[in-house]
Design goal:
The complex is a heterodimer.
Chain A: H1 9-18, H2 33-47, H3 51-61, H4 72-87, H5 94-133, H6 138-165, H7 169-174, H8 176-200, E1 209-214, H9 230-241, E2 249-253, H10 254-261, H11 265-279, H12 284-301
Antiparallel strand pairs in A: 1-2
Helix pairs in contact in A: 1-2, 2-3, 2-4, 4-5, 4-6, 5-6, 5-8
Chain B: H1 5-24, H2 32-43, H3 46-60, H4 74-88, H5 95-132, H6 136-164, H7 166-174, H8 178-203, H9 209-219, H10 226-253, H11 260-267
Helix pairs in contact in B: 1-2, 1-4, 1-6, 2-3, 2-4, 3-4, 3-5, 4-5, 4-6, 5-6, 5-8, 10-11
Classes of the chains: A mainly alpha, B mainly alpha.
Keywords (chain A): Membrane, Transmembrane, Transmembrane helix
Organism (chain A): Lactiplantibacillus modestisalitolerans
Protein name (chain A): PTS system mannose/fructose/sorbose family transporter subunit IID
Chain lengths: ~300, ~270
């Protein structure tokens, strides 16, 4: 066949750029279908020239579609390969194309959620947020740049992979690689989440005083007998550095006791409580509002 | 604090971008750490807004649109609370109460999202007609109408808050007593747990809990930065995957292989 229609790299770049807007017309009926058809338009335009062919192509790509927005890219790649063959006369019918789309979207969404939403986003987000909370502009910049580099690179690479592998990709992906990626992401995710709970969930019972003990002589800084002026300040600072207490009376709070046992224990228990409530189908919003109310009440009662 | 005309336009523009991203989930302009910072940038209150953004980001870490489920709306929460923070003119001191305001806003945004997604159903029906005509141009047009509708979803509430103005917003914030703002900030320290709990519920399995325990214990060592913890996590994942594979292949042929590590892993 001399007049084979081929999709150039330029066409594929256009499709890739448009797939950024995949979720733009997300709807409760057919979900990402509008954005899917929108993404494929540069390719369809090149492959089909008559009005009838174009109408048929658009209609078959307005069928139901929904997956993780970034994991749609390999499906787009495969679909491009299939459409290209079809336009060149291969016997690929609508059912086959829809079948590939539906067959791939489920397992791929199952990879995208743990990898992007539960691993990459919490890690990059927590890093950026902890910088931003100290007033460091690098936080937001880092988040934006890192996130988009990962996303754009991933989408282009997997779309090209899908296009080159054609319909074979479905078999490749059903093998071990996908499971490995999902499992690896879950391990990393669980590890980091636990660390974030320890560091960033604040449950503080400092106002509750457990005991007040009068300390023995020499265990605290003797303010009354310090030399006057700069000399005294120097002595006080040196003594404090040496581990002497500032006050004559040592107060132990409930928080101190908890920290000696397991730092972050209260945060951990709170997280488990939230998990349990969520499993009981309590809405996250109700829990969030409840925690605010709880915080205010506990503060007024002098516990937190 | 009052904003001039250019600042008002820029704020509405940032809101529009955040609204678009709320559905697209691609560039992440709607993530609080980015959205609040942008609002701060165009209004000249960069630092307080950035601190607000970082705090909200911590709360929103686990919020994600999965399947047809809609997460609490980070876009409206971020944009509107940042505008209120700017108008209130309290600087850093206003961050805690702005966080508390953000949560009900996230719920309001959730309702707006559901409305917008329902309206989009009508738009795809128009697209169906465009498809019958084989018109690429019309389909493109309606796709952009749908995207802009999502932008307007946030831009209008933002414009409304700007229209109400600094006076009422400030009065409202000043009317909040100390015990309430302090209490809310204590609550704010705890709500972060909800997002984490959502994520853990999705990922947890018996196989994964040991890694959770490791992360929790290592985090108490304050010398290890988040990047360091990330490196440890990646290494653990790689080691585990490699070991479970060698265990699997050697066990494939016979019963016990004398590979103690593989056996231990197989037991999990």
């Amino acid at each position: 066949m001399a007049d084979q229609v081929k999709l150039s790299k330029n066409d594929r770049i256009h499709v890739w750029w448009r797939s950024t807007f995949l979720q733009g017309s997300w709807n409760y009926e057919r979900m990402q279908n509008g954005g899917w058809a929108y993404s494929l338009i540069p390719a369809l335009k090149k492959l089909y020239t008559t009005k009838e062919d174009r109408a048929a192509a658009l209609k078959r790509h307005l069928e139901f579609f929904n997956t993780h927005p970034y994991l749609a890219s390999p499906v787009i790649g495969v679909t491009l390969a299939l459409e290209e063959e079809r336009a060149n006369g291969a016997p690929i019918d609508d059912v086959a194309i829809q079948g590939v789309k539906v067959g791939m979207m489920g397992p791929l969404a199952g990879v995208g959620d743990p990898v992007f939403w539960y691993t990459v986003k919490p890690i990059v987000g927590a890093l950026a947020a902890s910088l931003a909370m100290t007033g460091n502009i690098l936080g937001p910049i880092l988040y934006f740049v890192v996130w988009n580099l990962i996303r754009m690179g991933f989408m282009w690479y997997t779309q090209e992979f899908g296009y080159k592998a054609g319909s074979k990709i479905t078999e490749d992906l059903s093998g071990g690689i996908l499971q490995d990626i999902t499992k690896g992401a879950s391990i990393l995710g669980m590890f980091i989440l636990a660390a974030l709970i320890e560091r960033w969930v604040n449950v503080d019972f400092s106002p509750v005083k457990v005991s007040t003990i009068k300390q023995s002589e020499g265990a605290y800084i003797d303010w009354a007998n310090l030399p006057s002026g700069g000399e005294g300040i120097k002595k006080a600072l040196t003594e404090q550095q040496a581990g002497l207490s500032l006050d004559k009376y040592k107060t132990t709070t409930l928080q101190d006791n908890l920290n000696q046992l397991i730092p972050g224990l209260a945060a951990l228990l709170l997280t488990f409580l939230c998990m349990w409530l969520l499993k009981k189908k309590v809405s996250p919003i109700v829990i969030i509002l409840g925690l605010f109310v709880f915080g205010v009440v506990m503060h007024v009662l002098g516990v937190m | 604090m009052n904003l001039n005309a250019i600042q008002v336009i820029l704020v509405v523009l940032v809101s529009f971008l955040a609204g678009m991203e709320g559905i697209l989930d691609e560039f992440h302009f709607h993530q609080p750490v980015v959205a609040c910072t942008l609002i701060g940038l165009v209004t000249g209150q960069l630092v307080p807004c950035m601190i607000l953004g970082g705090s909200l980001q911590m709360i929103a870490l686990g919020w994600a649109n999965i399947g047809a489920a809609v997460a609490p709306d980070a876009a409206l929460a971020a944009v509107a609370s940042a505008i209120i923070l700017v108008l209130g003119g309290q600087g850093r001191a206003g961050v805690d109460s702005a966080i508390a305001i953000a949560i009900p806003l996230a719920v309001a945004g959730l309702l707006l999202t559901i409305i917008a997604r329902t309206l989009a159903t009508g738009i795809v029906h128009i697209m169906d007609k465009a498809a019958e005509e084989g018109s690429f141009r019309k389909l493109d047009f309606w796709q952009w109408v749908a995207i802009c509708m999502q932008g307007v979803r946030i831009a209008i509430p933002a414009a409304l808050i700007l229209a109400v103005g600094a006076g009422p917003v400030k009065a409202m914030l000043n009317a909040m007593p100390d015990w309430l703002t302090d209490g809310l900030s204590i609550g704010g320290g705890m709500v972060v747990a909800v997002g984490y709990a959502m994520v853990i519920n999705m990922m947890a399995s018996r196989e994964m809990w040991p890694f959770f325990a490791l992360g929790f214990v290592l985090a108490a060592v304050s010398e290890i930065t988040l990047i360091g913890l990330g490196a440890i996590g990646v290494s653990l994942a790689l080691i585990y995957l490699t070991l479970s594979k060698t265990g699997g292949s050697s066990n494939g042929g016979g019963s016990n292989t004398g590979d103690p590590v593989g056996d231990i892993i197989d037991k999990y």
